[in-house]
Structures are given as structure tokens and as C-alpha cells.
Amino acid sequence: MGKWRKRAKTVCAAGAAAAVISAAAIFCALRLVYPAAVYRDASLLEEDGRYGEAERGFAGISGYRDADERYLGVRYKEALERMESGDLTVAEGIFLELGDYGDSAGRVGECRRARAEEYLDRGLNEAAMAEFERAGDSPDIEDRIRECRYRIAEGWLKDGLLRKAADGFQVLGDYSDSGERLLECRYLMAEELRKDRDHPVGAIAAFRALGDYRDAGEIVLELTYGYVRNHYTSEDPLTMKYLEELAGKEYLDAAELYMDLTRWKIRIIVNDSREDMETDFDKAPLETVLWWHIIAEGGSPGEVLTVRPEAVFPDGQTIGEWDGQKTFGIVAGETYTTSTFYIDPENGVPGEMSFALYGGDGEPVAERTVMLD
């Protein structure tokens, strides 16, 4: 009995060893067959356009044959399919993930450009410009960016943001009709300034800068004439400048107004005070020291009028000098003062005292008389 048991043990041990060898062989066979099957199935899925499933298949046998390369290829095809169907965000993400595989980097730019065009069609101009700027280089990419800028400027113009719109069109230079639109913005800005009737100078300058655009020239004439009428004095240099321009263009009665303002107007006021430019005497006591105040207006800008003074007392005594000079120059806007008096008023002769200024032609420029008694 003991002998039999020993043999059985030997037979069992041999059977177990055979079973282990058989299992190992099957496992090795499966390891060889499984990747090949997955590879084959993934290839069929790729051919069928089922890229997501094919990706998972190739990813599951990474390292087998060219499975890793096939995975990238299928991933690329999925990205193309996504891009063509308009799923640009996902497509861009896949191309970014693929890095330098094939033309993936260029495809990223294509996705961004396509998204930019989509934004542009929807009127999302700023978003479109941002995408075009990220899309990389292409022959017409700068023109597409300018188109975005143009539409953004148009939006500002529509919303009444004239300064921003003008700046936007100015940056665009000669793109499309940007030059014309810039003039339109500046014209509307000038119209805004025109509403302030108390301060027309800014509007005049704005319309003048527009040259012959629309009716800008006519508006300049209208505004400058209005300024002249509201500031009608030869002492205002702008009035004289505007009147000279208007007269040169024969606008309304500008020539007559210019002649009127450039005509010398000299007044003489007489009283008993050196500082008083208001009080005006018609008569005064014989012993009064009379102060003759000459107030000059008119004349062309910068013109000096040379005059000869002459004071005549009631007794015929004549004074024909001004500070020792036979003549002196008068400038518009200035005042000139001198005095006359009897040295011995007790023996002075009452009567009419006169003071006059004569021009170079000998004609009186201004005259004034006072009765002394």
C-alpha cells in the first residue's frame, strides 16, 4: 500500500506541471493575438470614420507596432472632422494637443481664423479682431484685422462716439472709405461745436479744417460773419482777420464793414482831470487847466496815423507842438492826453478855445472846442 501512494504522488505532480506549461502557452498566445486583434479592429474603425473608437483602440495597445503613430493620425482626422463640422473649439484643442504633428500648428490658426469669421458675421467685431490677431500669419490677415477695426469705428460712429470713431478711421488710413468716414466724423464734431453760439471760434476752426468737404466752406463764411457782427470793433484782431477774409470773398457787406472799421475815428474829450476819460466839458472857467484826451479807434491793424496838433486860445495864441514835436503818431486803441491853460488867467481873454488834429493832407482828423468864461 505504501508503494502505491508514492507512485500516485508522482503522477499528480507530473500532471500539475503539464497544466502550468499549458496555461503559460495559452497566455503567451493571447498576448500575441490580442494586440493584433485590437490593431485590426481599430484600423477598421478608422476606415469607417469612427475616429473616437479607433483612438481608444490604438491608445490601448500603445507600443505595439506603429499604434502610437496611428493614434496621432486618427486624432488628427477627428480634429479635421470637428473643424469641418464647425466644432472649432474642440478641433483647436486637439490640434494644440498634437503639437508639431503634421500641419497641426497651422490648423490651429485656421480654427482661430474660422472662429473670427464667424464672430464677424455675428457682428462681434472686437472678438473677431482678437481671434484674427491670434490666427498667425497669412496673406490677407492684416486686411481682415483692418476690416474689424473699420466695423468697430462704424459702431462708434453709429453710437455717437465721434472722437473715438474719428481716431479709429484715422488709424485705418486709406483702407476702404476710411478717409471719407473720418471727414464725416469731423464734420459732425464741428456741428456739435456749432451749437455753442457764444463761442463760435472752435466751430470756425473745425469747419475750416474740413476744406471743401460738403458745405463746410459756406458754414465758415456764415460763422465768421456772425462773429464779426457780435464783436464789431477794430480792437478785436479776430474781427479784423475774419472781415479781411470775408471782404476778399465779397461776402455780403463785409467789404463795407471792413472799410468802416479801418476808417480812423478819433474823439477828443476835454475836462479838468488828467485821469477822467468820461466827463466832457462844453465850457469852463477861464482859470481852468484843461485836459484834452484823445481816444483813437479804427485804422488797419498795426497802422499808425501821423497827425499835427494845434490848440488856439480865444486871444489867438496858438500852440502847434506835442511834447516838443510838430507831429506824433496815433495807434488805434490808445489814448493820448495833453493840457492847456492861461499862464495869467486874470488877464486871459474869454471866448472859444479850440483843439484840433490834422492829417498829412492838412485836413482835420478831429476837432473840439470849449467856451472859456
Structural account:
Strands 2, 4, 5, 6, 8 and 9 form a six-stranded mixed beta sheet that branches. This protein has helices at residues 2-47, 51-60, 67-84, 88-98, 104-121, 125-134, 141-158, 162-172, 178-194, 201-209, 216-230, 237-248, 254-262; strands spanning 265-271, 283-284, 290-297, 304-312, 318-319, 328-331, 335-340, 351-358, 364-372. A hairpin with a 5-residue loop joins β8 (351-358) and β9 (364-372). It is α+β, with helices and mostly antiparallel strands. The protein is built from 13 helices and nine strands. The relative contact order is 0.05. Helices cover 55% and strands 15% of the residues.
Give a brief description.
The protein has 373 residues and is α+β, with helices and mostly antiparallel strands. It is 55% helix and 15% strand.
Features:
alpha+beta, three-stranded antiparallel β-sheet, six-stranded mixed β-sheet, rod-shaped, disordered N terminus, 9 strands, 373 residues, 15% strand
Q: Tell me about the biggest sheet?
A: 6 strands, mixed
What percent of residues adopt helix (DSSP H or I)? 40-55%
The total strand number stands at 9
Order of helices and strands: HHHHHHHHHHHHHEEEEEEEEE
Q: Count up the helices.
A: 13
Which helices and strands appear, and what pairs or packs with what?
Blueprint: H1 2-47, H2 51-60, H3 67-84, H4 88-98, H5 104-121, H6 125-134, H7 141-158, H8 162-172, H9 178-194, H10 201-209, H11 216-230, H12 237-248, H13 254-262, E1 265-271, E2 283-284, E3 290-297, E4 304-312, E5 318-319, E6 328-331, E7 335-340, E8 351-358, E9 364-372
Parallel strand pairs: 2-9
Antiparallel strand pairs: 1-3, 3-7, 4-5, 4-6, 4-8, 8-9
Helix pairs in contact: 1-2, 2-3, 3-4, 4-5, 5-6, 6-7, 7-8, 8-9, 9-10, 10-11, 11-12, 12-13
